[in-house]
Amino acid sequence: MKNLLRNWQGTKPPHDASPLEDVAHRLAVFEDIERGHSGWFWATDASGRLTYISPAACERFGLSAGTLIGQPFTSLFETDPENPGERSDRPLQFLLGAHARLADVTVRLVSDRCAPGMRPAWWALAGQPKLDVAKPGSGKSEKGGAFHGYRGSARDITLEYERRIEDSRLAEFDSLTGLANRHRITRRFESMLAAFKGTMRPATLMMLDLDRFKQVNDTLGHPAGDELLRQVAQRLTRVVGTAGEIGRLGGDEFQILLSDQEDRGKLGELADKIIGLVSQPYRIDDNHVVIGVSIGMAIAPFDGTEREDIVRAADLALYAAKHGGRGQFRFYSSDLKDEKEERRLLEEALREAITTVDGPDDSWEAPQLVMVYQPVVRTDDHTVVGFEALMRWEHPQRGAIPPSVFIPVAEDTGMILQLGAWALRQAARDAVLWPHPLRIAVNVSAVQFAHPDFPRIVGEVLAETGLDPERLELELTESVFMGDGEVTDAAFKALKLLGVRLALDDFGTGYSSLSYLRAAPFDKLKVDRSFVDSCTLSDQNSAKIIAAIIGLADALGMETTVEGVEAFDQRDVVCAKGARFIQGFLYSPPLEQAVVLERMAGGQLRIPPEGPKRHRPERRSVYRRIGVIHEDHRYEALLRNLSATGARIEGLVGVPVGTSLVLDLGAGQLAVVTVSRSEDATIGVEFETPLVSDGAGGLVTRYRASPYALAAAARMASSSAPQFLEVEVRKRA
């Protein structure tokens, strides 16, 4: 200000100027400074109301002086809040109320005062309180005079403020997706745990890893991968909303923090929504891209109280989800600690198993991998019209290992190419030996389908075995559409030139885009068993979805097979909805080749349905020691069967029907049950609150007791006499 005054030409009025001329001269100087300065001046009265504001400020705000003069200063301006977007005028009120000197206080015009179309601006506010100065010799302090308000100035700091905000944002947020970065999500989680520790409030960490993302990067390039990550971030934000904070750790890894959430039922529902939305197709340039996501979850304080413990637990759960079939979620449990070592051993065992089927024909070693065949039956006369080839792995020591476990391992390691080629060849060899020329359906992995040699391999198998191409049906999933669209179209064209049939498997579980059916030459749709499982429930739309899929296939001239039918009530529903072909245990489990040959030789091409009248929720056979608590006594018993709604327990004698018990299922899982059946040392119980899925075929309680509550309960345990007889139960052979 002083420099401006010194440099202004003619600052001194004539010596003989009158007081009035002197005032006019000062006013002219002030106006010239206001016009040439980037800021503006302001003044308030003792009550804090605005008494003066520069015309330059009014122009900048797009408001008239009349609308501003007389307004409380703090109603017009707010100080720089910690989180931009949240109004905060308290610091300014405090400073003005204390009559303190203002020095570079960052403020902005409050949003509801801004004129339409005006760009927001930030100002550095300076000001001095106007106080009466006591006369010399009066005995009063110079600061003891009356307060008359403020006089001050403001300068525009919008550019430097926005630069500071951007620098702060770059330090806290991922530049590609706009989500929180590793630094911010780590700091936020540590703060959350520290705040919650005293009150034992729960906090959940979700760790996400994209499935098949590397293939997108490798086939379409890094720019396409970046665009895919941006779209994934948008979908995650759409699902999670304000319920949690999402962070990108780098690459294709994400984290989600959820406070005050421990209900594993709701967490599972959220994880399912995330998996469903992220798995829908993406449009990247002119390519159709399909990926998946796996999720691991850990909850404080049940799975740990420190950030490192929770992160390690969620990472183990994620590892189990990825290598247990992908496209699923998994909660942490203590039995996951050896998953990585188990994965390594599984890879070695799978390599060995492949050598037993793909080695020399005169090998003495018995094959571990075999193909079995499940009949597809026509509903109106129960006649077998074809078979689906299914791979089975029987390990000498581990026993049966399901495809959902070993197929992802084969895909990750590249063994799927060798494994898939063998399965195709073996199924074709077996089918040509059948006395009746029925169709054989073979599942094809997306990794196998994407290989440029796949059509050639199919052609070689047909030539080697002599199988009629019309009898071979290749079952594909929507994931084959991931990647280069031209390569996919070329593969479809080459396969149809060979004369084989194509079926879209698991239809209705993914995005099920109609563009697939328009672009790809499918001959059949297969309705996924997940709809059949719930088609008899009145509160589900599964039966309507089955009807819609069958109607769509009919309109497009395609066949439909409904798989997973296990009970008569399910069969009645799907037949009423128009199903003409069914596959499931109600008709037959998968059969070995010798059994198929025997039945065909005897002319047994009709299979009458045989099974339960009504479908029941799946009960899992288990063998696990648990605790059973009645009143203030704890018993040890054996859990044998388990479903979402009930269980069978052995080891207690004399428990009356209707007795209320608490089952200690381990890891803080306490479930209230009522005895519904009691016979000798066996009781059947029903859960007060149904169990929920752990995402990998297991069942867990919605809530858990914290380790602190369990420890307190153990200390308070009474030594009163038991009311029931506890007996030893041994595992049956």
Overview of the molecule:
The chain has 733 residues and is of the alpha+beta class. The protein has four domains: 128 residues, Beta-Lactamase (2-Layer Sandwich); 165 residues, Reverse transcriptase/Diguanylate cyclase domain (Alpha-Beta Plaits), CATH 3.30.70.270; 261 residues, TIM Barrel (Alpha-Beta Barrel); 107 residues, Thrombin, subunit H. The protein has 24 helices and 32 strands. Strand 23 and strand 24 form a beta hairpin. Helix 13 crosses helix 14 and helix 17 runs parallel beside helix 18. The longest helix has 20 residues. The N terminus is likely disordered.
Alpha plus pi helix count: 24
Please state roughly what percent of the residues sit in beta strands, choosing from under 5%, 5-15%, 15-25%, 25-35%, 35-45% or over 45%.
Answer: 25-35%
Shape: elongated
Q: Let me know the average pLDDT.
A: 83
Major β-sheet strand ordering: 14-15-17-18-19-20-21-22
- CATH class type of the largest domain: Alpha Beta
The low-confidence parts are 1-11, 82-87
| Distance N to C terminus | 97 Å
Domain count: the total is 4
* CATH-assigned fold name of the largest domain: TIM Barrel
Radius of gyration: 37 Å
CATH homologous superfamily of the largest domain, by name? Answer: EAL domain
The description of the largest β-sheet is: 8 strands, mixed, barrel
